Amino acid sequence: MIAAMLQSAAAVDLGAELGITPRSFGVPLYQRVFTAIAALYADRREISLPSVLNELKRGTGALEAKDVERLRILETKQVTPGKVRELGPILIELGRKRILNTLGEWILQKSRNGSEPDMIIEKSMAALIGLGDNRASRGYRDMKKLTLDVITQQNAEVGKPLPTGIPALDSLFDGGMYRAEVTALAGETSRGKSCLAGNIMLHNAKQGTPVCYFTLEIKGEEIHNRLAAAHGGIDYRDIRRRAVKGNPKYGQVVSELAEMPMYIDDTVSATLPAMLARIRRVMREHAPELLIIDYIQKMSAPASRENRAHELGLITTALSLVAREYNNHVLVVSQLHRRGANDGKWPTLARLRESGRIEEDCSNVILLHRDEIIPGRKYNPETTCIVAKQRNGGLGVVKLGFDGFHQRFYEIPELKRAE
Known about the structure:
- The protein has 419 residues and is of the alpha/beta class.
- The chain is built from 17 helices and nine strands.
- A nine-stranded mixed β-sheet has the order 3-2-4-5-1-6-7-8-9.
- α3 (28-42) packs across α4 (49-58) and α6 runs antiparallel to α7.
- The longest helix has 32 residues, at 81-112.
- Mean pLDDT is 83; it is low at 415-419.
């Protein structure tokens, strides 16, 4: 592999496309050489034995004479770039096995030394990120291949936009939420964000679309109670009070929910590595087309040493990659900062902008607004649903009513599009 890369830029291109890394090599010398080749490749500098030796000298130090001679012999071997395609996957698999063996030894050592189990699990998950799938890049496509792919997608029944269940909102989104995109659903505390996310999950699951809901705030049983109230029109207060025992309607509702392709993950750990590991697992076992994360401010990125905004940026970037990698849609619930003295009545993207790169990384942003109190009534059921960002479409406002007794939103027949 190293011989081919020393002789041909095409071999280096192919190695990068396959996803070869320094960890793919078991010999420390080859790890160092590949790191130097990767640095030259990234800077678009010439790759040859002299340039590699100079890069090593500048970086980790010059090689010993015996290692230089070893590389000179490799440079003279006749290896075609096609050999990289043949040997690359084998090399990658061997590298992954070495990492697993090393990780297993580390876990055993830490367990025997009395380390905290949570710490061992957390760091093990972080080490395993990226090993689970190792999907290779497909590289460029010419227009003929791209056209065929587009025609195939147009004719396919699967892969269509995922509806929200609110016709006016789906109309704004040109049919629903599209694959390989991330939507942020944001609002202040107690504005119905989780309820609307649950309604969207239920609407898709009723149509047979697999959905996974990652709840970082409330238990799975509470999510189930809300779904039962929304699906069956049963008073949510009765369900919470456990006053539905023997109610045949409730029995029918939970029987129907049990058959729907919904998966609830209420695991306590909320770090980015743990979340990505759980996403990979559910994608492998059930392939949900919609992922819901409620809510993003509860997550953390242990590797980040910067401020909180930078940390949230790492999280949203990772979730954007998840949506593209699995060609599904990721719906992220987010808190908005409380309204300041100089803020207007309705929430804006400016208040979301303070929370990392959520606005930048998400394809769509939905902001929820509901006044807490109006004269004559304790609660105002009218909710303003603002499409504040849509990368591939227009903006607008949808008026929703909120039925708290049955934990569901309904559309008020009014749609205002932004100028």
